[in-house]
Design goal:
Structural class of chain B: mainly alpha
Order of helices and strands of chain A: HHHHHHHHHHH
Strand content of chain A: under 5%
Largest sheet of chain B: 2 strands, antiparallel
Shape of chain A: globular
Number of strands of chain A: 0
Distance between the termini of chain A: 43 Å
Number of domains of chain A: 2
Number of helices of chain B: 4
Oligomer: heterodimer
Helix content of chain A: over 70%
Shape of chain B: extended
Distance between the termini of chain B: 41 Å
Number of strands of chain B: 2
Helix content of chain B: over 70%
Radius of gyration of chain B: 19 Å
Largest sheet of chain A: none
Chain lengths: ~220, ~100
């Protein structure tokens, strides 16, 4: 790898640390939802996709089945496939390197890579790898810290963790709500999930909103 | 097998398959605008639903409690363009304060 651009390295590191530190909340949420410390750490090591991980512990923690937990998490992970489609021609890797590239293909690594576009493909590749591996390291260290801390924490509500988790999701979502269509979809999905909650098994209300996304997507195309 | 182990193994296996799949699709299938549009909207719908469920439900009942205040503060912080950690911490602090003192 050629010399790393300073701006690329700085952005990669700051994103890695900020997002990674939030692993504390995941580790604590995992243990609070009934996962062991080891299981919480395995989710961060193997699943390594923040939204999917919070979905799994969220659905099981609220009494959902393993199937609905896996299904919800997997629907949330589908976008990583799309990031892979975008990153693969840029990275152009095979074999074991492709396995590693796939594992660190997440919102953050893709986002930093795309933000380096004006600096050229070398900076884009460096941004992808530095951020992907950086988030991986910090996210896992902080997950362990959160999982260990949660045992001494007691009720997560007394620390505000019950509000911190949805606030974090909202924080991840917020920059993506620039268009009216996206905002309308977000509000519709939130209400649909709440309306369905008393009537269907946990997890299903969230998965159901994928249908709204299809409807909105089709409608967006008709408008063009 | 414990339900948590099924969830850990199932989620991790599918998460990796999904990631690897994206890196393995031949280029010629990559550009179908309608599919890309729908796929870009799905995470917005799912994450919004998750925010609602985590803030306003308890088991399968709708509830309003300290979490709503926490989320309200998070919205204000986001409107004021606060950094990500500030959003999360201000929501947690608000919710925790109400939990203890309200």
């Amino acid at each position: 790898m050629s010399r790393v651009n300073r701006a690329t390295a700085a952005q990669s590191l700051s994103v890695s640390f900020t997002v990674g530190a939030y692993g504390v909340a995941f580790g604590a949420a995992g243990v609070a939802a009934g996962f062991s410390i080891w299981q919480s750490c395995l989710l961060s090591l193997l699943t390594f996709s923040g939204a999917s991980q919070f979905a799994v512990v969220g659905v099981l923690g609220s009494g959902g089945s393993a199937l609905s937990a896996i299904a919800t998490a997997s629907l949330l992970g589908v976008r990583n496939s799309l990031y892979g489609l975008r990153m693969a021609p840029l990275l152009n890797v095979k074999g074991f390197k492709r396995v590693i590239a796939a594992q660190v293909t997440i919102d953050e690594s893709t986002g930093v890579a795309l933000s380096q576009e004006p600096l050229g493909p070398v900076a884009m590749r460096q941004g992808f790898w530095l951020t992907g591996i950086g988030v991986y390291i910090f996210w896992n260290i902080f997950t362990l810290a959160g999982a260990l801390g949660a045992q001494a924490m007691g009720d997560p509500s007394s620390w505000g963790l019950d509000a911190a988790v949805p606030a974090a999701f909202l924080g991840l979502l917020w920059p993506r709500l620039e268009k009216n269509l996206d905002r309308a979809l977000a509000i519709a999905a939130l209400f649909l999930a709440l309306v369905l909650t008393p009537f269907v098994p946990a997890g299903v209300p969230i998965i159901s909103t994928a249908l709204l996304a299809v409807l909105f997507g089709v409608k967006a195309n008709l408008w063009r | 097998m414990e339900i948590t182990w099924i969830a850990v193994i199932g989620t991790s296996a599918i998460a990796f398959i999904l990631k690897y799949f994206g890196h393995s699709v031949p280029k010629k299938y990559l550009s179908h605008p309608r599919i890309l549009k729908i796929n870009s909207l799905i995470p917005i719908a799912l994450l919004s639903a998750l925010v609602g469920v985590q803030t306003f439900t308890e088991k399968s009942a709708l509830v309003i409690d300290q979490r709503m205040a926490g989320l309200g503060i998070a919205v204000i912080a986001l409107i004021l363009k606060a950094p990500f950690p500030v959003v999360v911490i201000s929501a947690a602090a608000t919710s925790a304060a109400l939990f203890h003192f309200a």
